[in-house]
Give the backbone structure.
Amino acid sequence: MTEDDVKARFEKKNIEIFFMILFPASFEKDALSCISQEVIRLTQLLAPALKRSFDEDILLQEKLKEYSQHPPCTKEALFTKCKGSLDIYYLPAMLASVPVRASYDLEQFDQYKALMLSVAIKLIFMGSTSGLIERACNEIRFYAKGRRENLTPHLPRLNKVGNRYLPDLITELEDKRENLPNSDLSKKLTKAIDAQLAHYHTPLSKCAEDKKGIERRAGTHEFTSRHAMLEVTHEDAELEGENNIEVKIFSSQKK
């Protein structure tokens, strides 16, 4: 698919908004270079089967080349620039995130980081709500900071040579949510994990609505959600460790 083909699918204003979010006007050249170089790295890492559903990065190439010519700052310095306004700089902050624990599977982390970058690009181009995208980006930051120890065993395994297509991944995430433990002892933890899984599941499902941008594997069934939108309560927010943010979450409900 050509650059013109991709551009024709989206409104010009949404593409402009994306560049404003990715490359804040207040950031200096070293920070913009750090952002550019990390975007280039991640877009080259995403597994080919998933990449076929996310071709929007073709529209980034000119600006990435322009900004990456300057010496970059460190990711730590980039995050420091974002730290006071994470609700505005959520995308650069995600790009600055690095796992703090040596025990983490770096390939797995990078695949999810690359995936959520691709999701953010597509959803902003589609004109989706910023809250949905911000929560997806925040999940990667929390993952990097070691705040998702209970979640990571429930995330589908991704790797750079994997053959899982987007509809398959959406279905697998839905199944993960549907089959979480539901005993009295595990209810509070299950509720938190379900909300966290939703921050991957929901934006990926939204991406699948961009039919022209999705290339489906032969024989793959259409995704049909069994999850309903619920308003978050203060208790839910506390489970997430984000009691200063009021958001909507998607929680598993049986038909």
About this structure: The two ends are 39 Å apart (CA to CA).
